[in-house]
Amino acid sequence: MDRGLLREGTRAVDQAYKAFSRAWGDTIEAVFRPLLDFLLWFESLLLTTPWWIVLLVATAIVWFSSHSRKITIGTVVALLLIGLFGMWEDTMRTLSIIVVCTLLSIVIGLPIGILMSRSDRVQAVVSPILDVMQTMPSFVYLIPIVMLLGIGLIPGLLVVVIYAMPPIIRLTNLGIRLVDKEVLEAADAFGASNWQRLTGVQLPLSLPTIMAGINQTIMMALAMVVVASLIGVRGLGQPVLQAITNQYFAQGVMNGLAIVAIAIIFDRTSQAYGRRLQRHREASHG
Fold it and tell me: Left (φ > 0), alpha (ψ -120 to 50) or beta: where does 91 sit?
């Protein structure tokens, strides 16, 4: 293609996007304002609550989810070390944004996954979009968001949610499609409606697969938190970014290890919970 024509084309796209940003940027930010308020409230809750209460609650959640002494003890040790090395506040900020972004990804992604499982046409449309989302370099996500909303927590939240959402959509779709047809036929024979089939049969039976999707969504969100620190997302990503900028090796390694520790806690706990669901499913079906 002629370079002049290509330059004119890209300039036209840039100008159109800037015009869209000027016209709708404030409106889009206002739509997501309640989400930011919830994030700030949750972050404040974690930061103002005494550390030992947060530790007790986290330990209880991990124990009731995994029923594993090894994972629970590992969680306690990891959180105590994080506090001992002075990374508690940044870790709480990272936890708050991971929890909020994961919840939002589930709220948006789960219905899309269900729609995909019920319609081959929807799957044919959404699958290529998910392919693009999952193969696009993480830094590229920052460009349209920053041009649209600038730098701050709201664009950071959006970037993390968009990056983390594909796994929950894909695995919800896959889990529902893998439900045994004979079980569905039995549900139909008992006169179950579409809603009863979905909530009483398909979603419960596909829960282990959906949990695997939630696990991957959490991991993707954690991976994006460091990149999103470039546009104002607070937490463990910012010290890592500072360490890269100023060549502080120890600071970068310590905060990186804290992120790894959180990732392992989330991963092992959600996997253990998924296995418990799987065993419960197998026991209930003989």
Answer: alpha
Evaluate whether 269 touches 71 at the Cβ level (below 8 Å).
yes
What SS3 string covers 22-61? HHHHHHHHHHCHHHHHHHHHHHHHHHHCCHHHHHHHHHHH
State the pTM of this model.
Answer: 0.83
Tokens of 68: 């594993």
Cα–Cα distance, 283 to 47 (Å, whole number): 41
Contact 141, 231 (CB under 8 A): no
> CA angle 167-172-178, nearest 5°?
125
- Token pair listed for 4: 């002049």
- Residue 57 has a pLDDT of 93
* Angstrom distance (rounded) from CA 111 to CA 76: 35
Beta-carbon contacts of residue 148 (< 8 Å; ≥ 6 apart): 17, 20, 21, 24, 25, 28, 155
For residues 93 and 40, is the Cβ–Cβ distance under 8 A? no
Residue 180's nearest CA partner among 157, 201, 164 is: 201
- Is residue 218 within 8 Å of residue 98, measured between CB atoms? yes
CB contact at 8 A, 157 and 221? no
pLDDT along the chain (286 residues), means of 10: 77 81 79 83 89 92 88 92 90 88 90 91 90 82 78 82 90 89 82 82 84 87 82 81 83 87 87 77 62
* Rounded-to-integer distance, Cα 158 and Cα 176, Å: 27
Q: Residue 164 — φ and ψ, nearest 5°?
A: -90, -15
Structure tokens at 75: 């969680």
